[in-house]
């Protein structure tokens, strides 16, 4: 009863205290809401971060094993390829050696005949000798033709020079400079120069004489035709 009496006595003070606390709570409500929101934000971030880190760790762990497996498989494949290439080279070399020895054996047994080989070498020797003789003959012919052409060219040049040197030849009263009474005479083309000068002079003189006669004959015929021209 005493407790109830105390409550009744302090009723007004309790009501006033309640309203004061309600007013204070209304004033702090905004701050409390912001604080609660901040706490929720950090808590949610913490939860999400833990979840993200766990997923990231598991992903990295799976990638590590996957990359290791792929690297081992790649290394094994490369190792197998190198091993196969090495074996292929080795067996190819061995096969080549076997083929070489077998071909040598087969050729020596079935194709290599000493008599046939000797006859073939003799044939090659005769053929080479014939070819060398033919080459020498062709070389001699070409050298002879070259000498003939050079001699003809020299003769032509000598005759062209000697055609204008007839005044140096000998006469009945005076000997020419090439017809010396003492010493050896100058020989050109198996003949002394004096004889060459006379031959060239006579041939040139006969040619000019024939040319003059032909011109005289043509002129005379032309004049006769002019004189015998009939009257109109």
UniProtKB/TrEMBL annotation:
InterPro entries: IQ_motif_EF-hand-BS. Pfam families: IQ. PROSITE patterns: IQ. Keywords: Coiled coil. Residues 121-156 form a coiled coil. It comes from the Eukaryota. This is Spermatogenesis-associated protein 17.
């Amino acid at each position: 009863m005493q407790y109830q009496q105390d409550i009744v006595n302090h009723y007004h003070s309790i009501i006033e205290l309640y309203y004061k606390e309600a007013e204070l709570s209304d004033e702090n409500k905004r701050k409390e809401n912001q604080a609660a929101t901040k706490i929720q934000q950090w808590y949610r971030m913490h939860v999400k971060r833990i979840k993200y880190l766990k997923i990231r760790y598991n992903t990295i762990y799976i990638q590590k094993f996957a990359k290791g497996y792929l690297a081992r498989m790649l290394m094994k494949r490369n190792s197998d390829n190198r091993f196969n290439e090495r074996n292929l080279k080795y067996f190819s070399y061995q096969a080549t050696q076997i083929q070489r020895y077998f071909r040598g054996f087969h050729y020596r047994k079935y194709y290599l005949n000493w008599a046939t080989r000797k006859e073939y070498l003799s044939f090659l020797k005769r053929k080479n000798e014939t070819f060398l003789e033919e080459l020498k003959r062709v070389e001699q012919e070409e050298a002879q033709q070259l000498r003939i052409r050079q001699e003809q060219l020299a003769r032509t040049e000598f005759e062209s020079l000697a055609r204008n040197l007839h005044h140096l030849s000998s006469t009945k009263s005076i000997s020419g400079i090439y017809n010396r009474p003492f010493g050896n005479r100058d020989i050109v083309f198996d003949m002394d120069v004096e004889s060459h000068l006379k031959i060239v002079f006579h041939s040139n003189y006969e040619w000019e004489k024939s040319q003059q006669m032909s011109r005289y004959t043509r002129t005379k015929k032309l004049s006769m035709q002019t004189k015998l021209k009939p009257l109109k």
